[in-house]
Structure formats: C-alpha cells, structure tokens
C-alpha cells in the first residue's frame, strides 16, 4: 500500500488523515475497534478511491496531535523559512548499544492543512513531486559502518518513475550483502526534522572553493581568532538605502540587518 501512497502524494493529490479509532458504524458492528483490524483491501480501496488514510497519533488525541504538529511546522516556517514537515516512506531498523533504533529512508516535504475545526486534516506535497533520500542516514552509515547504500543515493530524475517497493528490495539486498542485521520496514509517518545544518555542511563540502572567493569566508577558514581587515575598509553601511520589496529573505529582518545583507551582496 506504500507504493499507492507514494504515487498519490507525488502526483499532487491531497490525502485526508482519519483517526485510527474512527471506524465506520458498519465495520464497528462487526466488532472492529480500530483501522488495524480492517482488511488490507478495504484500506487500499479507501486510499485509492477516497484518498483517505488512517493515522495513529500515539499518546495524543487526533486533534491535539495534529494541531501541535501543524503549529510547530508553521513556527519553523516563520523562523527559518522552511516548515521541515515530512512524510517518511520506509524506515531502516538497526540495533545500537542494546537499543532498537529507526531512521526514515525517503522523505517527501508536505503541508498539513485543515479547512475547518470539524474537517479532517489533510496532507499535500509541499513541492512539485519531490522525494528526498535521507542523506543524514547515508552519511551516518558511511561514518559508523563504512557502508554506502547506492540505492539510497541514486534516484531517477523523474520521481514519478520511482518504484518505492523496488527501492526497498534493492536496499535490503545491499544490507544482506554487507552482512548487517539492519532491516527495511514499509512504514509511513509524519514528522518534523531540521536538516539545515546538514545542508550547510553538504553545501560547504561541495562548494568550498567558490566560498573561498569571499574574504570573510577565507578569514574564518584560515585565520580564525585573528582580527579581520576588511578589504573595503571601514565602510559605513548606515546610509545604504534598502527596499524590503526588492530583497526577498527567508526570515524577517529589521532595518540594520537588511542593510548588512545589502552590503554583503554589494561588496565581495
């Protein structure tokens, strides 16, 4: 069923999230108490025909759990410019220090919406059909185990051509060949993750030569702890004219901050 979920989301469809315990009266009359007891075909039909999926919010109620997730994603969007809300597709299960740990394999940025208090929450792809490998997991596997999962890093250019089940099979095969006890599970869940520091690290690793053109970057990289001598001299930026409508920033900035941004773009 995960393959159908992936295709629906990547195709741009909204998916209604239904409380795991909210069962149709007809099914409840048959003794069914929650969605885990429904036949797979019934759940598949709900997904494909009604674009509906049941969700377990663990200890929280349906309303409180999803309201909290939505509010947190909105706060992050205001503070960082990125909501950091993802739908995970598949997870890697592994043991470390006597504990069982899990990590998502693939991520789809999504939006969590609700039209009214009585309406169900819905998720929709936040970008144009984008699916992202968990690069943090990939780097961690390289560092901890010297393990490179080629399948996790080599996705087809057209995500709609991606066969997620085939990807899971290929990753499982790579894990077996590497003689690890890690396993792949076909699960999906909503979560918030902040990859900003990883993206910054990855960006610097791949583009450090371009960054070194900047005197400030070069100073930080090679002369940290020493006084920085600005090649432009002690320029007074307080007189710089700024226009908020012409400078699109990921987060709000006051007047002096905006002047600093404009000055940084103006002078190398």
What this model shows, in words?
The chain contains 10 helices and 7 strands. With 268 residues, it is an alpha+beta fold. A hairpin with a 2-residue loop joins strand 3 and strand 4. The chain is globular and about 80 Å long. The model has no long low-confidence stretch (mean pLDDT 84).
Index terms:
7-stranded mixed beta sheet, 10 helices, globular, alpha+beta, 268 residues
Secondary structure topology:
Blueprint: H1 2-10, E1 15-19, H2 25-28, H3 40-50, E2 52-55, H4 62-80, E3 85-96, E4 99-113, E5 121-125, E6 132-133, H5 135-145, H6 150-153, H7 164-177, E7 183-192, H8 196-211, H9 215-222, H10 255-266
The major pleated sheet works out as:
7 strands, mixed
Radius of gyration: 24 Å
Structural class: alpha+beta
Helix-strand string: HEHHEHEEEEHHHEHHH
**Residue share in β-strands:** 15-25%
Level of helix content? 40-55%
The whole-number mean of residue pLDDT values reads 84
Shape: globular
DSSP strand count: 7
Unreliable runs: none
- The termini sit apart by 53 Å
**How many H/I helical runs?**
10
